[in-house]
Structures are given as structure tokens and as C-alpha cells.
Amino acid sequence: MTDQPDLPDDLLPTTRRALLHRTAVAQAEGRTPSLVAALVRDGRLVWSGARSMIDDHAPTVDVQYRIGSLTKTFVAVLVLRLRDEGLLDLADPLERHLPGTPADGATVAELLAHSAGLASETPGPWWERTEGTLRPALDDLLEPGDALKHPAGRRHHYSNPGYALLGALVERLRGAPWGEVLRREMLEPLGMDRTTLLPEHPHAGGFAVHPWADVMLAEPLTDTGLMGPAGQLWSTAADLARWAAFLAGGDDKVLSAASLAEMRRPAVGPDTADWTSSYGLGLQLRRHDGRVLYGHTGSMPGFTAGLWISEADGLAALALSNATTGANAAALAADLIALTAQHEPRMPEPWRPLPTVDEELLALTGLWYWGTSAHALRLKADRTLELSLVSGGSRSSRFRAEADGTWTGLDNYYAGETLRVVRAADGSVSHLDLASFVLTREPYGPAEAVPGGVDPQGWQAV
Q1: Can you give the residue ranges of the Beta-lactamase-related domain (predicted)?
Q2: Which of 116, 131, 224, 448 has the fewest other C-beta atoms within 10 Å?
């Protein structure tokens, strides 16, 4: 097993040892010919480790592995770029831009979230182990007359052909093959020159390991053609570390942090209250060890991959293996985050005051009442406002200032809603209007600001 020697030495020795041990266990118990893993902290690759079946030899972070459905995260970003440029709306039916497919009525958002109700796989033969030349047209990706398995928009049902259609959508709107668009618009700006549609030396070979004997069988390295957007890409640990840093923080050359945050919100409600996994717009979400992770898993014959990001911990981890089954790369990546967070919990940012004092904003802080419910309005150092129930509850929200003097909710119940400061005739603040809710400085007062008025007898004792 190797530990990357030239990375920043800012992990504790005990942490590095724990990460190396977990990686060795994954390779040994998973019976995979080779495995490479890496950790990203605050946008920087800070650790990598690898293990191989060959003595004194292990893959470096520059060796390519097939990443399977991690490809879908790249395709989703391409689609969000089209949305942000105004070339499509996520509510658009596919037929508006790509007519004549078996999924004409599916919306772009439903395809991204696997909620269009489409079949999970193509008609046979199994697309992952056969050449794409067997499916030369989009009509070949879904069974005519039997493409829909569930009502659209009602449930999450994973669909590989759905992402093939999204890749075709990118090609239609960009006028170029999706792989070329990917390279030009995303891979080159992010410095990911070792991420490719077909393997480039040095790359790992893919193997199946016999379930009952320690022997191996080489897996075919196929070009899946039109199904490529579902799982064709090859990449390296170093490139995927750059991808993880991008997914965590955004890059305006590729996609904004706000659009990436939109991608990692659950798009379809989970089936149970104690959910452990969900799906956004091209990103999987998973609860693991008390934290919420986002990223994606991947597998193709001969390979497994996993990449997870913990926003709360400022950590991301990934793992790549070259065996069809056995080494659970996704579980390994999640455990690397948990181990690092356990050994080296994230240091909070130091508290700092506002650089300048805005007297008008300062005057808005303090207690406000919605009817008789007391709310506290706080001004934060990043110049956002935070409104929360004094007694606690689920309607705490942050608000961002807009150029017109209003405020927009950023999260929870009031996400996207508008907060306005309403002034009296003399210019003084009368009340706050929040999505038609009126907040006043006293419970039900002043009376003229309260919808429906106030009983003229006022507050009374029994």
C-alpha cells in the first residue's frame, strides 16, 4: 500500500494511518485487484492511498479507472449550464428540444432526478457489456410502447436511458457531441485533462473476481455509444478530487455555487421518514454516520467508484476499484469522510463583527411578533438577516438583501419568499411583510397594520 508522499502534510499521523488501514481493508475484504482512494479538505487534495494485488506496486492518483454513473454528475452540470444560459427550462418537456423520443412528455427536471417514470435499462442485450453500435438510434434506448414504468413525477426510479436522452439533449442544443462539449466547457476549465470517454494510458483493466474462488476474469472495455452519458467516462483520483472541489464550491467558469446547491436538494420526496438515500438533480444524497453526504456512486463491468462530499465537514472523499463487485468504493469513500471528521473535526470559523455598522439594519433587529408568536431578527456578519422563533421551531430562515430593498429567503419554510420593510407615512418602520404574514413590534400592534384589524376592546383579563 502506498501513501501519496508529495501532498500537503496537514493531516495528523493518526488520521493518515486510519485512512490507510480502511483502504487496505476495503481492498483485501473486497478482493479487488487494485484500489485507489483520496481525500479532499476545503477544496484541496490532502491525502491519497492505494493498494494492489501486486507486491510493491500500487496505482497512483493519475491512473485512469472507469467511473460508471459518476458520469451522470457531469451530464447534469452540462444541462444546468444550458438552463442558466436560458436555452431551456427545467420544466420543459423533452419534446420541446428533442422531439420524437419514447420520452417526449418527460420534463428535463424529471429526467435529471430519475422521476420521469422511465424504464431503468435499455432493451436487451445488456448495454454495459455490449458495444453501442447495437443501439444506433435514440429509439433503440427504450422499448417502444413500454418506456414508462411509473407515473411521471411521483417517485424516484433510476433510469440509465434517461441520462442517455439528456446527453442527446446537450448535443442538440450545442450542435456538437456531448463528450466534446464536456471537454470544452468543463474539463479544460477545471484542469481535468485525464478524464476521457475512452481509456488512455495509464489505465486499469477491469476484472470480475469469482464469487467462490480467488481467480479473475477480464471484463470487456466497451464503448457504449449513445448510452455513454449514463456511465462511459474514465477518470483518475486526481481529476475527481478537482471535480469534488468544484461540486463543493462551484466555479463561475463552469457553474455557480447557487446552481450546484440547487442540484443537491432532494427532487422527489423520500419514501420513508427515516430515509437514508435520496436524489437531487444529478446528485445522490446519503445519510451516513449522522451526516448528509452528496455525490454519486458508479459501476460498470470491471469497475466501481464512489465520490461523496460533506458540506458540514468541508470534506470530500473518493474511491476507485477495478473489480465488478466486492470492494464497495462508495462505502469506502463515505467512511474516509467519517474517519477524518472523527480524528480531526472541522474548526469553526472565528466570530468576526460586521466591518461597518448600518444603523437602519441595526434598528430592524430584535423581537418581532407574528400574532402572538415571538420571533428574533438577527443581523449576521455576512449581512444576511436571520429570522427565528424564540421558542424554537422549523420556520427559522435566512434572508439575502436584494437591490430593490427587499430580502429573499434562502432556506427552510421561507426559501424564495420575499421579506419587505413597510413604512408608515412619516417614514418610520410600521411592520415587516413576509409572504403576506405581518410581523409587528408588539403582539397584534399597531392595530392598523394587522390584517383583519384588532378587537377595539384590546387585551382583557378573564
Answers
A1: 27-341
A2: 448
As a whole number of angstroms, the distance between CA 73 and CA 195 comes to 13
Longest CA pairwise span in the chain (Å):
88
Contact 437, 446 (CB under 8 A): no
| pLDDT for position 206 | 97
pTM: 0.89
List, by residue range, all CATH 2.40.128 domains of the chain.
Answer: 359-449
Q: What pLDDT score does 349 carry?
A: 86
pLDDT tens profile 308-331: 999 999 999 999 999 999 889 999
Cell of 5: 508522499
Backbone angles phi, psi at 442, to 5 degrees: -125, 155
Query: pLDDT tens across 259-300, in order?
Result: 999 999 999 876 566 678 899 999 999 999 889 999 999 999
- Grid cell locating 236: 483518475
What is the C-alpha to C-alpha distance for residues 310 and 298, in angstroms, rounded to an integer? 18
Cis peptide before 211 (omega within 30 of 0): no
d(CA 122, CA 125) in angstroms, rounded, equals: 8
Q: Bin 143: left if φ > 0, else alpha if -120 < ψ < 50, else beta.
A: beta
Which single residue is written with the C-alpha cell 438533480? 281
- Residues of CATH 3.40.710.10 domain(s) within the chain? 2-343
**Architecture of the domain made up of 2-343:** 3-Layer(aba) Sandwich (3.40)
The three cell numbers locating residue 80: 444546468
The answer, yes or no, to whether residue 86 has pLDDT greater than 70, is yes
Question: What CATH number labels 359-449?
Answer: 2.40.128
- CB count within 10 Å of CB 88 equals 18
